[in-house]
UniProtKB/TrEMBL annotation, chains A, B:
This is Glucokinase. It comes from the Bacteria. Keywords: Kinase, Transferase. The lineage of its organism: Bacteria, Bacillati, Bacillota, Clostridia, Eubacteriales. The keyword Magnesium does not apply. One of its GO terms (molecular function) is kinase activity. It comes from Clostridium cavendishii DSM 21758. Belongs to the ROK (NagC/XylR) family. It holds the Pfam family ROK. InterPro entries: ATPase_NBD, ROK.
Amino acid sequence: MKNYVIGIDLGGTKISCAISDLEGQVISQNTVPTNAHEGDVPVLNRIIGSVETVLRDGNISIDMVKAIGIGSPGPLDAKTGIIITTPNLPFKNFDIVKPLEEKFNVPVYLDNDANVAAIGEFMFGAAKGTENMVYFTVSTGVGGGAVVNGKVYRGNTSNALEIGHITVLPDGPRCGCGNLGCLEAVASGTAIGKRGKEAVESKVETTLKNYENVTSYEVFKEAAAGDAVSIEIIDSCLNYLGIGVANAIAIFDPEMIVIGGGVSKAGKVVFDKVQQVIDKRCFKTMAESCKVVPAGLGTDAGVIGAVALAILESK
Amino acid sequence: MKNYVIGIDLGGTKISCAISDLEGQVISQNTVPTNAHEGDVPVLNRIIGSVETVLRDGNISIDMVKAIGIGSPGPLDAKTGIIITTPNLPFKNFDIVKPLEEKFNVPVYLDNDANVAAIGEFMFGAAKGTENMVYFTVSTGVGGGAVVNGKVYRGNTSNALEIGHITVLPDGPRCGCGNLGCLEAVASGTAIGKRGKEAVESKVETTLKNYENVTSYEVFKEAAAGDAVSIEIIDSCLNYLGIGVANAIAIFDPEMIVIGGGVSKAGKVVFDKVQQVIDKRCFKTMAESCKVVPAGLGTDAGVIGAVALAILESK
């Protein structure tokens, strides 16, 4: 019986690999450094080695494995299994699926890390039991994923839910992508940190000036301590995040919105403000039927999401 | 063999009913006045009469009918078959599905008119052959529907794709829904007409002053004739429409966006501006892989959409 799946979380600094049963219970897990500078084939071989390790540690034969799921930074093409390019991995137009399928003779599924996180939350995290959910990750950038009618939604070029690049302020600041006023340009951790730095460099009075380097972490911290400028920055940025979430509710009418990523760790201040914007901007029925909650999976979210991808896709 | 379906388009002034084969070829069609003032039961009876007429005219027995589809203004609950309320129909929390199922002993499917139009375009109109498409209707208001992974997407409370109520200008004009800066408040036909009227009532020089009543029609007309104020209004409103469409591309990564409704009839000026905004604001891969086209179904779009709903849901 094929009662197990393997999940692989590909990251710029480490590769995590886990073997799990079909309920997401991890049997064995292995983490190795990526050593991206060594190039694509050595990294691929390290992935293969990691898979062999979890099989051996879990005392499970590959014949008992139903599927392998891989979460990777993008852009990538989930349909063809090709990693197009990523800033911190050595893969350029690299077919990661085929060599693993050939090696292990098991179906292999690839998806980007935001989708994988969404699937993880849907199957084993905060959104367990829902049919329609949207996942936001708010950290350096803003990304997302959606499960609609019980299935992950990828779109035509595997780029669906580039929710960080919807325009929420048409004449707002320039985003890294080139557009003006993207959600990511006004509501990411980077955006919060940037506005903190601008305050430090200006004449305004703010306790942010006590820091050598200002990131969103310091802005949240000083806002909590009562610094008026920090409070204003946080409130403004979270207002835009709330607009992004409210727009997702108007479009998806989901049962749940899950927010993960570094910024979400600030907790109550984030969720209170987002809820306030939703209550102001959304239709009442939709706002009331949609729960907005923090991500439920912890530090292993990446590898658990990859496990969930393997289970969902091989159903 | 059940080789036919029936589509019903419920409107405030008329009820259209058609019987069609499973390829959407209409066999017979019937249109009667709604006479909404007579109340719910008489209107229901007129719907039943219209169904009987198309069966008789088409010489088709009800045993040969696979399903009935109904498109109605909303809000409604597609899951339970209940029309919650509509401005121009006598139905309040009215179960329209059950009496028709009992009468004809055939599965009956209800959906709101924007979803039905989306399904119609997906099956028989401009989006035929796609797997993922988003439909915008831009007229008095702005509405929408989406087909994802080959299925219509309704969301948790049947309100998905309230695309007219995404915020595109956070401090923009008040929308009828109460929110500020909804797409509908800045890009609908009503919004265009309102800005035309404001111009007439102001000191600005504009040929719109030659009209007693200014709607979007006059603003488009005078813009085409070279009136600078009208050109500015059209350009600004279509810029917001473009932002709405660009946001839908970032979220759905669809193969196609179909734009219907009165405003889309202005043609090239609409589609050129929308495309320009997409090219400016969207990721290149997504922009290039997504066609933006006018609706393909004409005046019978409502009833053909209802036929398509019946076919799609009974598959």
